[in-house]
Amino acid sequence: MDTTPLLQVAGVSLEYVAGSRVVRATHRVSFDLHAGERLVLLGPSGCGKSSLLKAMGGFLAPREGHITLGGAPVTGPGPDRVMVFQEFDQLPPWKTVKHNVMFPLLASGRAGRAEAEQRALRVLQQVGLAHFADAHPHMLSGGMKQRVAIARALAMQPRILLMDEPFAALDALTRRRMQQELLALWAQVRCSLVFVTHSIEEALVVGHRIVLLSPHPGRVRAELHAHEFDLDSVGSPAFQAQAQRIHHLLFEETAQPETAAA
Ligand SMILES: Nc1ncnc2c1ncn2[C@@H]1O[C@H](COP(=O)(O)OP(=O)(O)OP(=O)(O)O)[C@@H](O)[C@H]1O
């Protein structure tokens, strides 16, 4: 793995202004993302995980601190960073599955029609939905819709895939299967991934590294390695011990910020 960070989040505070009220979502958060790394942002509801993804996506400018991608400041959205959301309705319902996948390629000018179609069919094959290319989203299950959203993101061949609790609305079995599929897909494409969750187990399975955020406004409480864990290690003593440790760090209100390696 390259040692120069691909993305740097340095001392980033994020705020929302609603009338005269200012809501601070994160306070001086710093972490790096390396090329080909799977990084998880884990923390309780409201700690600013989604806000950090928005900022990395270029949709929210830091109030203080800065975000750089390949050494250049992030000043807005770009096709090098794509987002996958939790909601099943992120696919325009009037477009077929194939056209949903082709749309960002065409809209961003990344590909002409023939290449967009070719890429769409290839990624749909990768996510096991080649037979549903001409179906409309309402004909798909929640898991299938999320597969289309992932295919649409991967078709863009982004440098960074930003995923905001993509499996949180799925039943437990489907969620497990989707985690497995995501890891298999990642092994093929090896793009950099930032994955937001508030599930400790999911964080350990998906992440090479976990940035643990404290409650609102989010601060970095700890950084932990999770390279050694996958779906097969769920339930093992080492997995349980690391899950316990994270649980303790998340819920121990008096704990001081620390940097910890597993
Ligand atoms: N558009 C907005 N306007 C005002 N405040 C906002 C807005 N979006 C988020 N916030 C506030 O910023 C804080 C962080 O929200 P954010 O959604 O980033 O947290 P989160 O960790 O992703 O939460 P969850 O896990 O519940 O999705 C919260 O206090 C939230 O109320």
From TrEMBL:
GO terms for molecular function: ATP binding; ATP hydrolysis activity. Signal peptide: none annotated. CDD domains: ABC_NrtD_SsuB_transporters (cd03293). SMART domains: AAA. InterPro entries: AAA+_ATPase, ABC_transporter-like_ATP-bd, ABC_transporter-like_CS, ABC_transporter_ATP-bind, P-loop_NTPase. Gene3D superfamilies: P-loop containing nucleotide triphosphate hydrolases (3.40.50.300). Residues 7-242 form the ABC transporter domain. Keywords: ATP-binding, Cell membrane, Membrane, Nucleotide-binding, Transport. Belongs to the ABC transporter superfamily. This is ABC transporter ATP-binding protein. It comes from Azohydromonas caseinilytica.
